[in-house]
Known about the structure:
Rossmann fold, 12 helices, 315 residues, binds phosphoric acid mono(formamide)ester
Amino acid sequence: MKDFLKETDFQAHELAEVFALARQFKAQRGRVASSVLAGQTWAMLFSKASTRTRVSFEVGIHELGGNPLFLNRNDIQLGRGESVEDTARVLSRFVHGLVVRTYDHSDVQRLAAASSVPVINALTDFLHPCQIYSDAFTAAERWAGSGGDLVGSLRGRKIAYLGDTCFNMANSWILGASLFGMKVALAGPKVYEPGAEIRAQLAAEGRKADFLFTTDPVEAVAGADIVYTDVWTSMGQEEEEEARLAQMRPYAATSQLFAKAKPDAIFMHCLPAHPGEEVEQAVLDNPRSVVFDQAENRLHMQKAILATLARRRRS
Ligand code: CP
Ligand code: NVA
């Protein structure tokens, strides 16, 4: 597979290598120059806003010796109706890889199918795999310690996911948990129960849909090693904001709810956060909140993903 469009585009046996690279890049940061992408330009084609993903990819590509080329959808002919396929064919003649943030997941699939260079999913409405890899690495760093088995430390752990349980972050955790051997319990309003698309993805890969969905947040967090939430109104859902805030209020990550997880549970959020909505400020500030480690690790994990795809291409 030349692309990284979903969590399972790396096989279970490749995870140890990807995680070890992220650990190595983190340890070396700023001290050891890398030439993994020397002479390469990677285009970053974004149709949505981004702080963490954009900056970590631009810095990461630069730190690997490559040149990031940021392209806002509306600044190129794609925004005026040129097809996804022609865009992919043309960019493939100029650059060595594409990092893409967009709405429809089918658009990254079409770009990947038509391009001759690797395509990385930097978030779609369906999945956010770079985030999940960084998050899993962030938890594993704490659980495995400095020399321990990162991927092994995830096995059997429970993540409780609260709020919007049928959009990109929830879907990605369902797929990611299945890959990492974790248990996932999702709590949200019944109308946001994980949907047909993620169930179809699991089925297509021969994976069991063995996640728990409940409308009871206390049931989800009981025994959890990670309590995770995301904004209630994602990019593209702004018109639904009022209804979503009302529906999801019982699923806010409050200090009271966090206290019902394991005593050493960590709190995670992909950010940006809306304190006072999906999460209390006190939970973000809790000593067991690792939200800024998650943000930092986007850089180290993305470098690991880029280096692994680049190496695959050479072999
Ligand atoms: N978590 C995340 O992807 O953040 P950005 O939208 O700022 O990239
Ligand atoms: N679910 C959010 C994630 C942002 C990183 C969104 O898609 O807007």
